[in-house]
Amino acid sequence: MNSKQTLLRDVLILFGLAGWAVALPGFASEFVLSMALTCLMYVALSTSWALFCGTTRYLSLATAAFFGVGAYTSALLVETFPWWQVVALGALVAALLAVFMGALVLHLRGTYFAILTFGMTELIRHSITFYESTVTGTVGRMILVAPDSSTVYYTVLLLAVAAMATSIAVRRTRFGLAMLGIGSDEQRAQTLGVNTRLVKIGGFAITAAFAGAVGAAMAVRWTYIDPTTVFNPFIGFQTVLIALIGGAMTLWGPLLAAILFSILAETLRLQVPELYMMSLGLLLILFVLYLPGGLASVRWFMLRDAWCTLQAGWRERRYRWSGQQARDEARARQRARERRHV
């Protein structure tokens, strides 16, 4: 399959999934729509995160910071600005924050970069809490004016489709190739003339813009937000977890993992809330150990081989547990003794 055929396939799949999601409110219940909204939120967050972090191999834990900044922008402006401008401003503020943060920390790599992005997220959260408690006197914001739920759903759907379309487009540009080159060997990319600092800041800003827009759109679901809610580190950890489970280097892996993971997380939260976090941690360990390429690396022949191995193992255990193995071994020993006597 050549490049044009691959592009056509990706665009058709994206249109098919988007059309199904557009039609969903017509026949789904409120519970299903709420779960679909969560799926779409994590599709946008994990796809945009993988676009930068998956290709450049920079592990960012700042998603919660961009999400929270977008949410606060929405809470401050939703009563005075039109809805689409509020979402756009949430993306813009988050992107500007990413440019500033990237200029400070993108010269680092590995655990140093991850720890610093997490530390700056916590710094922003505590700074806003301190400002509100000492200046305004009230921690948090009330959201009294909000669009209806269908507007929020279609907004998040549009952001998820835009994140996927951006990922498809960027991977085919020189900018996308430059990010791949940075992930493979940053010094060699510099030698070949890539302005790695500018490329990294640009990719980081794109990731942040989507996270900020999603935060602005999702903030109106709550009537009250505070720094603990919207800067929750779990939002960033879950985004990273979904991208790693799906395959951070792939296009469709984060989308597939976001859908499966959201359904699984909601089921665990409702059925076994005391084992919820433990199950997620165990899932991450199993994927890192046995499927490091993520769900997108699974191929049909791997599933077929795994199924054949399971069937062979089950037949062997059934042969042993039924006593047939012991009987066959006893017959073999009896025949051996008879041959010795003859």
Automatic annotation (TrEMBL):
Q: Which Pfam families match?
A: BPD_transp_2
The principal location of this protein is membrane
What are the entry keywords? Answer: Cell membrane, Membrane, Transmembrane, Transmembrane helix
Record-annotated membrane-spanning stretches: 7-25, 31-51, 58-77, 83-106, 113-131, 151-170, 198-220, 240-263, 275-293
Q: Where in the cell is it found?
A: Cell membrane
**InterPro entries per the record?**
ABC_transp_permease, LivM-like
Query: Per the record, what is one GO cellular component?
Result: plasma membrane
Gene Ontology molecular-function annotations: branched-chain amino acid transmembrane transporter activity
Show the CDD domains listed in the entry.
TM_PBP1_LivM_like
Q: How does it sit in the membrane?
A: Multi-pass membrane protein
Q: Which PANTHER family match?
A: HIGH-AFFINITY BRANCHED-CHAIN AMINO ACID TRANSPORT PROTEIN BRAE, HIGH-AFFINITY BRANCHED-CHAIN AMINO ACID TRANSPORT SYSTEM PERMEASE
Could you identify this protein by its name?
ABC-type branched-chain amino acid transport system, permease component
Please give the organism.
Serpentinimonas raichei
